[in-house]
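Data availability excerpt. The first of two example chains:
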Amino acid sequence: MNSIMKKKLKIILSGGVIAIGTIVCNVKVVCAYNEEYNNQRKIAYITIDDGPSKYTERIIKILNKHNAKATFFMIDRNMKNYPDQVKSIIENGNTAGFHTVSHDINKLYKDCNSAKDEFDINMKTFYEITGKESKLIRLPYGSKPYTPSKSYENLVESGYKLWDWNIDTEDWKFSSNQIIQNVKNYTQNKNKVVILIHEKQQTVEALDKILVYLVNEGYELLPIDESQKPQNFWSDNLNQ
């Protein structure tokens, strides 16, 4: 190879290195931008416990009004008592999860398999009603401090996705006005919030104003997806 050809080859190879370096640089910039965007992105997961109930359809109607989706953690007997509402939850684009059979920590943690057994029953009931499955779960009163480590490990090993919350509206004991104020107070300086509410009269009365507030504050109102990494007290990943 003569000197002229070598020079041309060197230029070509140098150009290739520059091009590759530019691509790598651009990828890094895009990745950094995406990470920054995701960190700044405001998302509210509305999670609703203890249903379905006589309030479920009203809740869904309010959610639809704001183009919002939620995640419903349902108790077994309530799924059996309100099968049409179970179907409506899914048909309206919300996510279904489970909230045990007994809702009783003494029964749930009788042995290390009791909690898993209850969620297996939930899964069976849900499948009989909808023909679908879900691995999303929430333990009554949260996954800490009551859940023994072996019970937690058995749930994880069985593929269940356990979610807790970082905003407790305490709607079970407050008026609708106080529930709204609690949401306003507790969401301050948080970009990602998992909001706990229940299927109660006062919560239904507060829900519309809660959603209006969250939208005005720039939150996207999304359902939990099974593919997401679970956020719970064991993982200590709820403080964002």
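And the second chain:
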Amino acid sequence: MSSEPVEGEARDPLAHEIQELKLKVGEISDRLDVLSRATMDMKADISKLSSGLESLQREVYKLSESFGHIVEDIARSVLPSILFTKMGVSVESLERRFFELDGKTVEVDIYGLGKRLAEGEAVVVVGEAKARIHGEDVRLFHEKAQRILGHNGCVGDPVLVMYGLYLHPTAIEEAKKRGVSLISPYLELVKLKAPNGGLTGHSQQG
């Protein structure tokens, strides 16, 4: 007798494998659905985090700006007495001032007119206030001050000052070279014009 398998029996293993394959494809599809939902949730979380970071950055900027204004207010309040006692310069008040130079608005934190007590010579005080002052800050301020002093409305011997809560060593070196007075609650560095037109200076712990 013939031992050839019946046609239905020959198809059973293939059908079984196809059924298993379908089950595996179904499992993979379910896992992909889970992964897709997890990805969407992660995107939502990242979006919330990004929005939160942007909000935090805005708040930090506002805080930094407010702190900067506080430092400026302190500088304008204390500098008149420091200029008077340490440099012999009398100035009634200091203010923020805006200048129109070459079609652009240039702002300075500290500006005022006064005179030297000894000679009665007119002076113009130009200054800047920052929480932290580095050498590059001194250079940029000095360059800006030179432009302002070239303005027709600025009449008087220039007195350049910078007030900061922290003075980096590079700022002190740059100030010495450029004749800028650096003043802080912890260190006061004053560069004065000597009678012969040269520069003298002294540093004082305060």
